[in-house]
# Entry
Amino acid sequence: MSRARLLEQLAAHMPLTDEEAAMRARLAEFVSTYDNCFERALLIGHVTGSAWIVDLDRTHVLLTHHRKLDKWLQLGGHADGDSDVLRVAMREAEEESGLTSLRPVHRDIFDVDIHLIPARKTEPEHFHYDVRYALEADRAEAIRLSDESHDLRWVPVEEVYRLTEEESVLRMVRKTNQLR
# Structure
């Protein structure tokens, strides 16, 4: 994949809200402007890939309680130079969960989000231009907690609201009905 391919996917993505549409436009502008947009070395921000993992029945979603951010979130992480953001999302999901049954629900972008990451030690405050894909996995498969998480669990879709008030996560909950 290249910047051009990601820009094509972004153009085809149908946002759920006006806020997401604005983020899609901002993300496309960012990708168009910076040829190193997939590199963590771009200190103002970089493209990340995330996985909204649902079970085969689409009744549960796998969430992680992120150690550094202290929030319940979808799995995902840095592209580290890889312009195939679906591959990034798949890799990060497997690394953070141990799941091997992961597969894309479809190859289209599921959601986009731009969020500010606070400064830490040697890293300045910066943005994650997050491209999210819907993946599915067998809920019966054992999951493995990574050192990036405090907790990892399958959560009934209708109970995600009890764990987080993060609008970007709740937007994906609302989109999950479209996957059924």
The first strand starts at residue 45 and ends at 55. Helices lie at 3-12, 18-33, 85-97, 167-179.
